[in-house]
Structure formats: C-alpha cells, structure tokens
Amino acid sequence: xxxxxxxxxxxxxxxxxxxxxxxxxxxxxxxxxxxxxxxxxxxxxxxxxxxxxxxxxxxxxxxxxxxxxxxxxxxxxxxxxxxxxxxxxxxxxxxxxxxxxxxxxxxxxxxxxxxxxxxxxxxxxxxxxxxxx
Length: 133
What we know:
This protein has a 5-stranded mixed β-sheet, sandwiched between helices. The chain has helices at residues 43-48, 53-67, 81-92, 111-122, and strands at 6-12, 16-23, 26-33, 72-77, 100-105. The chain is built from 4 helices and 5 strands. α2 packs across α3. It is an alpha/beta fold.
C-alpha cells in the first residue's frame, strides 16, 4: 500500500449520496444531494416513476465523478439505488468498475456509524484509538 492509497465508501439512495474518504493520514465526509427538476407530471406517472430517468443518470454521473480518484470503492445503501449505480458504472464509467470492491445493504447509518463501517471494511484503524472498529 502506497502513501497515496485512497479509499471511498459511498452510501446512496435516490435522494442523496454520502461519501467517506479515507487516505493514509486523513479522512473526510461529504454529501451530494440528488438533483431533481421541478417538472409537473401526470399524477399517475408520478406514483410509478417519481424521478425522471435523466435525473438519476445525472446524479449517478456526479457520484461517479466524486469517487473517480479512489483506488477502492465501497458502495452501500438501503435499497436499489446502489445496484442501479453499479449498473450505471458498468455502462457509462467502466474504468471505475474494477475499483468497486464491495456492494452492501446498509440502512440509514449516522455519520459516525458510516465512518466506522468504512474503516472496518477497509481495515483502517481509527486515528484516535488505533483500533479498527
């Protein structure tokens, strides 16, 4: 492992993505909201398809750009968005695909729980305690 090894865990649903970046000497958390256009649609269509497909493509493109510099990527989330993102990567950002090291189902963790999950998954010790929690 080199000093510049960069890992990212991304938790996402259809509304936002949370990132936890881990480098050898630091970690950082950030959030990216999904962009939803305010378009009036027929109520029957809204029930079955609340989001326009282009909104999700744009969101997944932004998520892919946010993790592009990572050497290893963990993708987690509560529902289907994580799998849709992996399919998006397969079709539109294939250079990221080999860097996705895991896809896990995770409900709605707190920031501290998400950070602990990422450290545990990547076997990175907590800088305060030195332990992998």
